[in-house]
Amino acid sequence: MRVVFKTSYDRDIDLHKDGIHRARIAVLLAVMAALPFLVGTYYLAEATNTLIWALAGMGLMVAVGHTGQVSLGHAAFLAIGAYTDSALMEAGLPFVVSFPLAGLATGLFGALIAVPAVRMSGIYLAIATLAVFVIVEEMVILLEPVTGGVGGIMAPSISILGISFDRYGALQNFYWLVLTIVALVTWGYANLMRSPTGRSFLAVRDSEVSARALGINVTRTKALAFGLSSGVTGLAGALMGHYIGFFNYELFSIFISINLLLVVTIGGLGFIPGAFLGAILITGVPQLIAILRDGLNASIGLDLSTIPGLDTMIFSLILIGFIIFEPTGLYGRWLKIRAWVELFPLARRDMFRRQKSYLKTERMK
Amino acid sequence: MELLQLVIGGLANGCIYGLVALGFVLIYKASEGVNFAQGDMMMLGAFVALGFGNADQLGLPFGLAVILAMAVMFCVGWGVERLVVRQIFGQPQFALVILTIALGFVFRFVAGSIWGYTPLVLETPFAGRNLRAGGIVIGLADLVAIGATLGLTGALWLFFSHTRIGLAAQAASQNQMAAYIVGVPVMRINSLIWGLSGAVATVAGVLYATRGAIDPNIGLLGIKAFAAAVIGGMGSLPGALLGGLIIGVVEPIAGRYAPGELAQMSPYIIMLVVLVLRPGGLFSQMQMKKV
């Protein structure tokens, strides 16, 4: 294990632990940027999808992982982002303007909901967001001139400074666009978490009472976190609309909300890399299942595609397994493995043992 | 006349919402966990009853089939608590939320693999029989729904206020730590409550099935029942029933007199209004902690 001596406060709150860490991230970015030259169109499209999911996952992570507010309605924010972006582009605005505006509009909507919602604790917020989701879904069907109603709309094709970023015509460019956005958001997110605002999110998550005692305006912090969360999710929604191309309200179903929760829970609540790990899992597992299904069908003639709902079932079992056996998610598991290797042979089994605790009542607020 | 007709149909529907909501509230009171799979437990209960009762399945008499289904679902609820929920004791609340959502999908898959995804009809002795009184038509199924709900609520009330286990459950729900100290087997009580809510969900499912066909996706009704529980205030048994009745009555009336999709949204709109005005629900159980 490398011991880093921190000789100044700036060093202590630095984004990267040391030069090696910085270099690793640079290498990762370089590989991601070179990906269009390394893999075929199919996998490039999948990578784009994964990045969009990671972006949406980061959006939810701000609320669930870092502020402790569970939302079951984030698909609604995806929908609002996608439809706002498309509507603005149809109205003649370029993507460079409509995209941030879509995020802003979604963020404002989220904050607006959050103001009454954050007065509710834990479970009530989850239910309220679920209700908001249902209402937004119905509104999408009702607002037919903008959203195309049940029929759906075609996402306009993106072009910036005359260069096409169309998802089908110029997938490479679209991939780079998504990668740039995701990298920027991740950078901003990581920086936010070392700022006073980010720290106050964590304080609110860990104990509202103590946060209040430390002079944090809990209501404002929660509303801000929720607004940021929905804004980022709205950005992801806009990209998802462009990625899918043709979409209607069914793209943003309740299952998407649950998949998003899956991303952050399996990835690792409260860790930014967790959103990426979760996104890789959620986009990768269906591919694996498809490959496995074809393999089984070809080798032993077992046709799994005759069993409907098997994918959802497998996802659910993975989710249950993670919650019971590894509540810190994939990233938490990685941290444990790393600690074991670094401390070898001194690591002890009880180092990460979860403390059994009694029920923390939420009836007392 | 038309309004009265709508109200009676709505009350019967509301009883079903209320019963599912009752299941939520039972678990919430006992362990402050929220079982998002309650709607799917209702669905599974209805299918188990169908499996015992329908002529082309096991073909048992209706009453026996319902009782057996309740027993089976009691065991399912008990088992879920024992094998899954107890493992995450002490984790934050949303862990249980996510866990039970996943469990709901598992239930849906199980029901879908056994009984298929095409809608099935539960054979009941009172299907399609109507009573006429002064210009309005009351389905016998509606009356049965209202009656069964009243009976079940009464039985639950007697159980919680007059039996030793019921009193122990009340103690555990009020203060878990203190209940431990005075020797209440809190863990076992929790399992029992989960079992009970499984059985209540079965009754709701059977009542739902008497009013139409069932398929594995009817569990989504749970979301509406959830709204009912919140309107009443999570943690209040009469509140849950009242919330269910409010939603059940408002829905058909909104569908008849209000435009378009408003009927679909009405339960959630009522719920949001209640949450904003009275964050703890109509029968609030929340208290401020003094620091």
From TrEMBL, chain A:
One of its GO terms (cellular component) is plasma membrane. GO terms for molecular function: branched-chain amino acid transmembrane transporter activity. It is found in: Cell membrane. The chain crosses the membrane at residues 25-45, 51-80, 92-117, 123-143, 150-168, 174-192, 223-245, 313-332. Keywords: Cell membrane, Membrane, Transmembrane, Transmembrane helix. Coiled coil: none annotated. It is a multi-pass membrane protein. Its main location: membrane. It holds the Pfam family BPD_transp_2. This is ABC transporter permease. It comes from Marinibacterium profundimaris.
Automatic annotation (TrEMBL), chain B:
It comes from the Bacteria. The chain crosses the membrane at residues 6-27, 34-52, 58-80, 92-116, 136-160, 167-186, 192-214, 226-250, 262-283. The keyword Transport applies. It is found in: Cell membrane. The keyword Cell membrane applies. Keywords: Amino-acid transport, Cell membrane, Membrane, Transmembrane, Transmembrane helix, Transport. One of its GO terms (biological process) is amino acid transport. GO terms for molecular function: transmembrane transporter activity. It is a multi-pass membrane protein. One of its GO terms (cellular component) is plasma membrane. Pfam families: BPD_transp_2. InterPro entries: ABC_transp_permease, BCAA_transport_permease. Belongs to the binding-protein-dependent transport system permease family. LivHM subfamily. This is ABC transporter permease.
